Amino acid sequence: LEPGDRGGAALDPRREGRGAGRGQSGARGGRRPGRTPRAGAQDPARPVRCPGPGCGGAAVISGATTVLRAEIARLLVTRAFHGAVALVAVAAAARAFLAGASLPANGVESGAGWHGLAVGLQSGLVLSGFVLVFVAARGLAGDAHSWVLRLALTRCASRGGVVAARLGVGALQLLVLTLASLGGALAGANLSGDFGPLVLEGYELCDAALAREGIQRVLLAALPALAALHAFGLAVSALCSGAVQGVALAFGILLSFDLFKGLLGSSSLWLFPTHAPTLVDSSAFGYAIELTGLGSSTAMFDEPAFRIGLVACAGWWLLLGLASRWILGRRTL
Question: How far is the C-alpha of 32 from the C-alpha of 17, rounded, in Å?
């Protein structure tokens, strides 16, 4: 073909260079030749999302750890929780002081501090249980309503990882509240009396070692029950669509159980609220208060109920945690 021909224009080296330049400039606006993405490759402009149930164990653990760190950071700057911890400590100290200071008027010459410690610790743990249920019941429901939960799930945190992180935060909250209750009760009991043997009008009713052992045992029985209370609030929160609804339902169920648990008889020992300190208390703290008070001669520790409580509360904690995961996995967020 001649160079002037229309068909030979494509073979003209000068025009071919200009055409190639236009082709290269056009390739810059789109995908470059030879850089075709692989099938299933992730677009770097989009955030990496967890595939959900298909995530590996390492991804679930990593997501749960990320959510746990975020929840702890949020807890550290939450003034409401700081105020709740201070309230628990002050209430425990006040109850311990008043209970211990009332014994000398009844003829107690020594050991009034043990009674104040038992009463103050019980009062602090009652308030701690309310705080745990409130925080857990509004947690998942409130975060789902405000889309915070959806944000966590888009950052490769599975729903099981979110529930596991909330249970971990609940354990940390329980530890802080228990220490606040114990510290406040010890402070109030120190002001109200000593921690020697319980002596009434010259007669020793209870030695210091027995009083210390009794308080330790009832505290050990109460901690799994309080952990189960937190897991119960978490399961209710996973079921409800709003924070107010979750808190109202959780407290309504617990207070209703308090009113009717006396009708269940010995079968109530297999239910975790029976072993948690509440307003209508049926926990082992009744033994500690009788042991360190004027009813020392009639105080008897129920060993079978103690063992049933430990096993039942641990089982309820695990069951309610799995129920929270199951319910949350079937919700549309």
Answer: 18
Contact (Cβ atoms closer than 8 angstroms) between residue 272 and residue 172: no
Helices (H), 44-104: 57-76, 79-101
Strand order in the sheet with 203-206: 108-110, 198-200, 203-206
297-323 pLDDT, tens digit each = 667 778 888 899 999 999 999 999 999
Cβ 163 vs Cβ 67: under 8 Å: no
Give the distance, in angstroms, between the CA of residue 96 and the centroid of all CA atoms in the same chain: 27
Global pTM exceeds 0.90: no
CA–CA separation, 159 and 156 (whole Å): 10
- Is 259 exposed, middle or buried (CB count within 10 Å of its CB: 0-12, 13-18, 19+)? exposed
> Residue 138: which residues within 8 A CB-CB, separation 6 or more?
237, 243, 244, 246, 247
- Rounded CA separation 234/142 (Å): 11
Please provide the distance, in angstroms rounded to a whole number, between the alpha carbons at the two ends of the chain: 69
Q: How far is CA 6 from the centre of its chain?
A: 79
Instruction: Give me the helices (H) in 154-207, please.
Output: 159-192
Token pair of 38, please?
């692989």
Count the Cβ atoms, other than its own, within 10 Å of residue 243: 20
Q: CA angle 83-179-220, nearest 5°?
A: 130
Using only the alpha carbons of the chain, give its radius of gyration: 32
Tokens 């052992």 correspond to: 213
Q: What one-letter code names the amino acid at 216?
A: Q
> What would the two tokens of residue 241 be?
């669509």
Cα(129)–Cα(173) distance, rounded to whole angstroms?
Answer: 10
Q: DSSP secondary-structure letter at 126? A: H
Task: List pLDDT tens digits, range 150-161.
Answer: 766 676 667 877
d(CA 160, CA 228): 18
Q: Which whole-number Å values give the CA distances from 90 to 122, 123, 129, 184, 219, in the listed order?
A: 13, 10, 16, 6, 19
